[in-house]
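TICKET: design request
STATUS: open
ATTACHED STRUCTURE:
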């Protein structure tokens, strides 16, 4: 089968012919029909994220159909439309026992990170990681649920959003659009910050009360003004550069929660006096639990959250998708479609 491989830090991904893996006991073979491109892949490409495992097939936002089942998996599951939960924790540690597999220190698999993922025609995963998808959500629209929406669900949960709070979503990409909608649905007042008119216009459509263009003016001062001087109750940091982190921190109000989701090579600096006297919290949010994925599917099925797909591309054209993402051109996700004619 064709697969897009990470071969090492600071080296472009490679399209290669590799064998697919037959499902072992308890596993399923999934024929991939849609595979979202996440910002994480850019971090692999740049060398910022190096987990020391190569070569490996990229892709953790994966939708497909079960093609084959291993022993112990009901044969009725063949043909089922599924979306992948990309973590396989050890199942025994204190984090796994409460469902926080994303924090497992003895991870058995993490598709598209340390295990072969879904930038390929097939992927093999445990049956429990192939979660059934309702017919009302198309394959392409479902792909961004796998990481984009689940990450937003998880971060929103950690932030403990409350009705009436001012919530800033700093960066309107795959995760940001989900956060805007979740925050709005929880009764919060949403300020979205970005750099492109098209993305900010969509953020308004999805529920942002105000949008701020980060390329003009002082973002933190604007947020202070909008909130009557109080500052934001929650800032979701989806970018993580010095510029955005400084503004996010300066915009945070009393007992505010600054939630990091995005990152770059830049480090975050804050004087503890700010955290102390305003009782602020700085949190990190990584990935999602299996329950978060179930909740994300339900939110999209019920129309509470809508996924945003900018374009679909044949698997072979993965580099075009990555480059467009890196240039900030995409409004929502680029989704790879294996098996579609890649010859332009
Ligand atoms: Zn564990
Ligand atoms: Zn992702």
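STATUS: resolved
RESOLUTION: sequence designed for all positions
ATTACHED SEQUENCE:
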């Amino acid at each position: 089968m064709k697969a897009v491989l990470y071969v090492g830090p600071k080296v472009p991904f490679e399209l290669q012919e590799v064998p697919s893996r037959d499902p072992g006991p308890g596993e399923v073979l999934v024929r991939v029909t849609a595979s979202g491109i996440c910002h994480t892949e850019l971090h692999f490409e740049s060398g910022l994220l190096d987990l020391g495992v190569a070569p490996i097939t990229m892709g953790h936002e994966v939708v497909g159909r079960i093609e084959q089942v291993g022993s112990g998996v009901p044969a009725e599951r063949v043909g089922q439309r599924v979306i992948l939960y990309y973590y396989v924790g050890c199942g025994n540690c204190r984090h796994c026992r409460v469902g926080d597999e994303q924090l497992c220190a003895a991870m058995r698999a993490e598709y598209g990170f340390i295990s072969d993922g879904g930038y390929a025609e097939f992927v093999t995963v445990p049956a429990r990681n192939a979660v059934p998808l309702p017919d009302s959500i198309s394959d392409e629209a479902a792909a961004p649920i796998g990481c984009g929406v689940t990450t937003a669900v998880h971060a929103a949960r950690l932030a403990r959003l409350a009705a009436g709070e001012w919530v800033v979503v700093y960066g309107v990409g795959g995760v940001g659009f989900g956060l805007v909608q979740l925050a709005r649905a929880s009764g919060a007042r949403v300020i979205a910050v970005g750099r492109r008119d098209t993305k900010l216009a969509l953020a308004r459509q999805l529920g942002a009360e105000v949008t701020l263009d980060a390329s003009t003016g002082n973002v933190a001062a604007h947020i202070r003004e909008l909130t009557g001087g109080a500052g934001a109750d929650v800032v979701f940091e989806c970018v993580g550069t010095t510029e955005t982190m400084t503004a996010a921190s300066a915009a945070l109000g009393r007992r505010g929660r600054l939630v990091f989701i995005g990152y770059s090579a830049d480090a975050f600096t804050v004087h503890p006096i700010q955290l102390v006297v305003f009782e602020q919290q700085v949190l990190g949010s990584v990935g999602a639990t299996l329950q978060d994925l179930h909740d994300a599917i339900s939110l999209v099925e019920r129309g509470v959250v809508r996924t945003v797909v900018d374009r679909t591309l044949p698997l072979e054209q993965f580099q075009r998708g990555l480059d467009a993402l890196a240039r900030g051109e995409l409004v929502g996700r680029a989704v790879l479609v294996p098996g579609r004619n890649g010859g332009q």
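CLOSING REMARK: The longest strand covers residues 27-36. Residues 38, 40, 60-61, 147 surround zinc ion (ligand 2) (CB under 6 Å).
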